Recover the amino acids of this structure.
């Protein structure tokens, strides 16, 4: 049976706990489902944290100081505000201030679309891009997660891994789509990558041709030819993210792409309002329809050629 | 009853050897005279960063450091005393206060964020009490090592401090928690901030606890007793002489433990040895400062 992303996370974790003397810490880890089947049950090195949202992650950071390379599980990304003081203020800064490396792997899990309401449905990697000292990424496939883990183990930096429950069942990879005579290049992040692929099918019916570039690494962010060549040939861009649009990854990366290419690149992210429980009041990743509309609006403004 | 004598055990000091008593005093002298010279440099305008002085509180880390060794040390912003008492490199501390790249934190930390890997003293970033969950995490991650965590009575109010102590108790982690309880948060007394004592909270969850004055023999006694039964908590009532930050003084301290310890050593007939230690330590730190200060003017 083809493995899912959840299987991949679980097996990476099992190996870390059983062979690397690693630790995994989090709240309610052993509760129903072992965090969506991403944690191997009954391994040694799993620490159930008390419901102490500041102390718990601080304890994980302390374990990182003495070299245990802990995995810290944050079951809902909204919890990250209380949970991140020692991650942002210590783990991310100690290398600059003290030369003290604090490699901690923060699994921050986003969710949406299940009536989760205002404080269990966000995706918040952008604030971690804003602060110095952390690597930030949003792997959505098994191989991307393996790459994420390999980078974590090969370096000493703390890492913010923006996960999304929509991806846990993902099997197989999500290669970039680069086609001839594309009208636009869409750069997608987190669960917005799934919505973008749906949107591309929708606008195809209007004869709009899209490149799709999947962005897993958010920080450090590299403006490679992989990103710029499709943008330059299509003449327009759109960055789509599951996080909020304002001051978010989408706007920041759109700015980088625009500055580097001289081409118009728009940004689309989560709406600037609180999410409600009722379906019609929920806020989440831009829907495929919304992304499709954004694509049509941008294509309408005409193709600009880089001069 | 003055808090200076809180928890007193009669004739306790006599049970320590002269060497142990004088060693604690030597470590107290190191901080006292290091900081007195620092104050002069500060007033001469040679120190450009905010400084957090330990004077008045020296006995606590001096006593703990004399009794334990090899522990990871997680202190906080007022930690010159911890650094020096545990044998941190004083030249690197001077250089840090001068903002030099040869400082213990290469100039990034200043007075409140100091470290010394040689004594396993882990740097503190400057948020009070966050060193406590860090210390507990280190004990979780390195269960064979001992860990000591110093914090103040204001940090003790941070919600994550008690939660971390509870975690240490749950997992039977080898952490000695030491609160340098000077009764002040900046200048706000404890009575204006809360109606409870952290020692009562730790007792209530079954953690070995001593709420005592800053008598170094008493602190040494409990450190020795607790070190084989960690985690445990020592709350030490003490008197900070200077402002929270800087060299200002409002009122004379209610007591000066340094003077009281000298009187005790005198009563033990150790005054000539104590005087010699005091004079030598004073000269030692004076020489260090005099060697480093000219660097500022490029001489």
């Amino acid at each position: 049976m083809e493995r899912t992303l959840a299987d991949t996370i679980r097996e990476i974790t099992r190996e870390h706990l059983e062979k690397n003397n690693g630790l995994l810490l989090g709240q309610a880890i052993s509760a129903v489902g072992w965090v969506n089947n991403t944690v191997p049950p009954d391994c040694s090195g799993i620490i159930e944290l008390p419901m102490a949202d500041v102390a718990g992650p601080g304890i994980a950071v302390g374990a990182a100081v003495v070299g245990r390379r802990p995995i810290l599980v944050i079951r809902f990304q909204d919890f990250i505000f209380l949970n991140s003081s020692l991650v942002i203020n210590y783990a991310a800064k100690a290398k600059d201030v003290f030369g003290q490396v604090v490699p901690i792997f923060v699994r921050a899990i986003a969710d949406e679309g299940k009536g989760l309401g205002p404080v269990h449905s966000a995706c918040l990697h952008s604030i971690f891009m804003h602060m110095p000292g952390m690597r930030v990424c949003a792997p959505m496939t098994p191989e991307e997660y393996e790459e994420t883990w390999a980078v974590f183990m090969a370096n000493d930096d703390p890492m913010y891994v923006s996960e999304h429950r929509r991806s846990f069942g993902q099997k197989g990879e999500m290669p970039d789509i680069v086609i001839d005579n594309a009208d636009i290049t869409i750069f997608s992040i987190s669960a917005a990558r799934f919505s973008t692929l749906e949107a591309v099918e929708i606008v195809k019916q209007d004869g709009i041709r899209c490149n799709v570039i999947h962005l897993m690494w958010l920080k450090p962010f590299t403006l490679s030819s992989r990103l710029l060549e499709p943008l330059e040939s299509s003449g327009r861009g759109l960055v789509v993210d599951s996080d909020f649009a304002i001051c978010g990854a989408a706007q920041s990366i759109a700015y980088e792409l625009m500055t580097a290419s001289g081409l118009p690149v728009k940004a689309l992210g989560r709406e600037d309002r609180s999410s409600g429980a009722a379906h019609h009041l929920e806020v989440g990743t831009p829907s495929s329809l919304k992304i499709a509309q954004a694509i049509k609006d941008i294509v309408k403004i005409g193709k600009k050629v880089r001069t | 009853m003055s808090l200076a004598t809180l928890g007193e055990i009669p004739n306790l000091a006599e049970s320590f050897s002269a060497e142990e008593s004088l060693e604690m005093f030597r470590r107290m002298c190191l901080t006292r005279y290091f900081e007195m010279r620092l104050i002069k440099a500060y007033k001469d305008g040679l120190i450009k960063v905010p400084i957090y002085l330990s004077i008045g509180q020296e006995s606590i880390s001096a006593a703990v450091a004399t009794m334990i060794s090899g522990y990871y040390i997680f202190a906080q912003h007022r930690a010159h005393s911890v650094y020096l008492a545990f044998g941190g490199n004083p030249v690197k501390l001077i250089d840090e206060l001068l903002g030099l790249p040869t400082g213990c934190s290469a100039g990034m930390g200043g007075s409140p964020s100091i470290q010394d890997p040689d004594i396993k003293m882990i740097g503190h970033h400057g948020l009070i009490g966050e060193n406590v969950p860090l210390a507990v995490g280190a004990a979780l991650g390195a269960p064979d090592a001992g860990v000591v965590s110093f914090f103040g009575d204001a940090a003790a109010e941070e919600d994550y401090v008690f939660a971390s102590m509870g975690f240490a108790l749950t997992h039977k982690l080898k952490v000695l928690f030491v609160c340098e309880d000077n009764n002040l948060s900046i200048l706000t007394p404890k009575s204006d901030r809360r109606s409870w004592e952290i020692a009562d909270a730790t007792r209530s969850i079954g953690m070995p606890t001593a709420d005592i004055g800053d008598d170094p023999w008493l602190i040494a006694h409990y450190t020795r007793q607790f070190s084989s039964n960690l985690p445990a908590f020592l709350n030490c009532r003490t008197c900070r002489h200077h402002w929270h930050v800087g060299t200002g003084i409002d009122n004379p301290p209610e007591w000066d433990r340094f003077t009281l310890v000298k009187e005790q050593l005198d009563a033990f007939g150790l005054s000539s040895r104590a005087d010699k230690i005091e004079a030598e330590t004073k000269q030692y730190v004076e020489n260090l400062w005099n060697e480093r200060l000219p660097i500022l003017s490029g001489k």
